[in-house]
Amino acid sequence: MKQIALGLKENWQQFALLILVNMLVGGMVGLERTVVPLVGTQEFNIQSDLVIFSFIIAFGVVKAFTNLISGVLADKYTRKKVLIAGWIVGLPVPFLLAFAPTWNWILLANILLGMSQGLAWSMTVNMKIDLVGKKSRGLAMGLNEAAGYGAVGLTALLTGYLAANYGLRPQPFYVGIVYTIAGLLLSIFVIKDTRAYTSLEATQSNSDLTEDKPSLWWVFKQTSYKDKNLFSISQAGLINNLNDGMSWGVFPLFFLSLNVSLEGIGWIKAIYPIVWGAGQIITGPLADKIGRKPLIVWGMFVQVFGHIIIGSQWLEPLTAGLIGSILLGLGTAMVYPALLAGVSDVANPLWRASSLGVYRFWRDMGYAIGALMAGIVANALSLTWAIHLAGLITFISGIIVWVNMSETKNLPTK
């Protein structure tokens, strides 16, 4: 058997292949960013914002619970098998989005998409962390999330272009068929399992390999509220995706009401995840250099300024949307790799996959909570107020991290 070693340089080929797979995973989410809310209003004539946002709620809840069990499944069946399962579950999604006869079929597509993302994206995260070891976690997560969310943005832009030129359906969703087939084939024939690297890291960090692995319930409590650092990280992750869930549903309808064109909305929806993705190439290694906490705190505050600009209507709508989305993307780029690296710093390698699953549970519940909050507030007040409320909640979350979290970069392994 070939001897293994931890490190990005030592495992760059497999790491690069996982980057490619994660781009395809992210592209599947990008399919929905621009077009699906407009399908609800223009094709199915749905008038309620809350009903329109129901597809995001379904996606977020299912993805959150799938994240929760993904680490347990990975430990039982290997990372690779769970990755392949994620792609198999996602195969029907682009077909359902392209040809769904009713809104309920769109909801079914998002249930399957949530399961697929919870399995596949979780495994690309865990596998990269496995490969690189402790020294380069921030860089690894920066590259991983840059690939995934860069693909989200580019696909959102592409689907906006296709929708403007060919109609809302089915053409924008054809790209998803290519993504699922390519992702499944790469995962089956090219990607190698990485669980052995976890055992190697545990040995090198003097973790007791003979001790019983704690239960998922123990890890859930530890990650959710017992450990103050993991609590701070989990709530910040939730609020980050609350912002994303809110913007996913609100922005297409908000800017359409301000007479922004479909292509303009596509650019607004694309620029957020593109900046978010590309920025992490810088912020990932920066988290390794200056620490996790500064990037998390200031990243939350930068997102607040993005909300202020978008919701203020001081500027021409397209300009405000683009500037605000750049700030949202920049703030999220600062936060995202630092959060993942922070969980990996605190959690023991033997239960790290489960802890990351719990963190991602709370983070992706933010999609559902953000969409639900936005739908209720938009129906009761306006879409503008939904944006303002998200900004206020983001500010409070940043204060919580500032006051409650310690720097985790050099914490000894538990």
UniProtKB/TrEMBL annotation:
Residues 14-409 form the Major facilitator superfamily (MFS) profile domain. GO terms for cellular component: plasma membrane. It is a multi-pass membrane protein. Keywords: Cell membrane, Membrane, Transmembrane, Transmembrane helix, Transport. It holds the Pfam family MFS_1. The chain crosses the membrane at residues 12-31, 51-70, 82-99, 105-125, 146-167, 173-191, 295-315, 321-343, 364-381, 387-405. One of its GO terms (molecular function) is transmembrane transporter activity. It is found in: Cell membrane. Gene3D superfamilies: MFS general substrate transporter like domains. PROSITE patterns: MFS, SUGAR_TRANSPORT_1. This is MFS transporter.
